Amino acid sequence: MKRVFSGVQPTGNIHIGNYLGALRQFVELQEENECIYCIVDLHSITVPQDPKELRKHILDVAALYLAIGIDPKKSIVFVQSDVSGHAELSWILTCNSYTGELSRMTQFKDKSKGKESAPTGLFTYPILMAADILLYDTDIVPVGNDQKQHIEICRDIAMRVNNKYKDTFVIPDGRFLKSGARIMSLDDPTSKMSKSAENIHSRISLLDEDSKIKKSIMRATTDSDGEIRFDPENKPGVSNLLSIYSAFSGESIDDIVAKYADCGYGDFKKDLVGITQEAVAPIKQNFNEIRESDELKAILRDGAEKANTIAEKTMKRVKDHFGL
Ligand code: ADP
Ligand code: NA
């Protein structure tokens, strides 16, 4: 059995990019692996958060995990800050990483662009992520394409420690989906769909009303040549909609292109609205039931206990190898 670990930040607006790129794999993987799914609240405070909102968003993500089909009887579901090993291991890894390699992270470069100084947490974010993964002797990390570089630095740090000290860490592999691994923004299809973009029509949240889904898709940026064709470079908007269509329907992009050969963007978009509404409907319904139930907090407590048992073993090994 392989160990799987992944996390989502409790920053609200969990969108179809998060779902199609990462979350939907979580459910599948739990059948044949030992899965650990975390709500990474320590990552979310790299930028200021309102405490009340954060607390709410933590429970929202927990409920969403369960709503998409993560089963707490099969998988461990917990909140990062409930297990102190994450922050503790993060410091030890910080002492085994370099400012040079962190400076090359494109996510940090994007987030700090044009600023003379940036929050240190944004800079060291990949180290905390490495700690999350290595703390559980993880074999597989299912994430979206935007995390490729962070998985790579995690592997580098783990190998560095293994070479310098006794064999300490399992070297993990990223798992990226072929379709949906990078969903782009609906209004600017040259940047990725994100939780924080100001324009709410740039994304479709998993909890959006049907009318909002319709509006966002119908006004999504396309182009003026009117041809439904997959060409991310020259036709990023249409190609992104084709990716979403394919990921939700399971149909190949080629089949979809053939099906809409004689149609305009309007007809294609209308069908995509229906497909998207149908895909998120059961998630929304489950979410509302679970979010209101008393069970949620008990599930997280139980998850934290199980996660902590594994984490403590790893920390004992790490400290032993480091002479701490
Ligand atoms: P965000 O990047 O939206 O703030 P997180 O950092 O919590 O979200 O990421 C949760 C998961 O969703 C990660 O595995 C990430 O790679 C994936 N993800 C985020 N945005 C996208 C996107 N636009 N397309 C595909 N996957 C994405
Ligand atoms: Na991200």
Folded structure, characterized:
It is found in: Cytoplasm. It catalyses: tRNA(Trp) + L-tryptophan + ATP = L-tryptophyl-tRNA(Trp) + AMP + diphosphate + H(+). Belongs to the class-I aminoacyl-tRNA synthetase family. A motif ('KMSKS' region) lies at residues 192-196. This protein has 324 residues and is mainly alpha-helical. The protein has two domains: 2-175 and 294-322, 3-Layer(aba) Sandwich (Rossmann fold), CATH 3.40.50.620; 200-287, Tyrosyl-Transfer RNA Synthetase, CATH 1.10.240.10. 54% of the residues lie in helices and 7% in strands. It is built from 13 helices and five strands. The strands form two sheets. The chain has a three-stranded parallel beta sheet with strand order 1-2-3. Helix 7 (120-134) packs across helix 8 (148-164) and helix 10 (236-249) packs across helix 12. The longest helix has 28 residues, at 265-292. It is globular and about 70 Å long. It starts with a strand and ends with a helix. It binds adenosine-5'-diphosphate and sodium ion. Adenosine-5'-diphosphate is lined by residues 8-9, 11, 17-18, 21-22, 143-144, 146-147, 181-183, 192-195. Adenosine-5'-diphosphate binds at residues 8-9, 11, 17-18, 21-22, 143-144, 146-147, 181-183, 192-195.
